[in-house]
Amino acid sequence: MAGVKKSNAGGTRLAATSGGVSYDPDVPVVVELRFDSPHVVTYHLWYALPGGPWEKAATGTDEESVSVTSHRHQVGPHPAGTRIGHLFLFVGNPETTFKAQLVITQNGQAVKGGMVSLHGQTNPDGAAVARGEVTL
Question: What is the model's pTM?
């Protein structure tokens, strides 16, 4: 992973790890979203080839507020420099903590920089947005 670019609102914090296997542009990636949060979550995933426009990869909703849940989406294969973008909308009780993780893997192993942890707190209306992108 060349890097993580982020845009935060409402005190959302993102952290990317540096460990993992090297990205192979000839192999698809699996983007796994993990939610550990007492909120309804709507998510969107996009990808953009180097120099190209954003293309929708997946969209979904997570309404399980009791246990950790996971959603997996295969993307690619794509050339090095492809960007994977995400947007999460958390809705629930006001000023409550949310946690999420985005994990990008190839052949079952996380790629370098491919684990992004997000956490923060919803606003007084009970909503929070987390968005960012990772460059393969």
Answer: 0.83
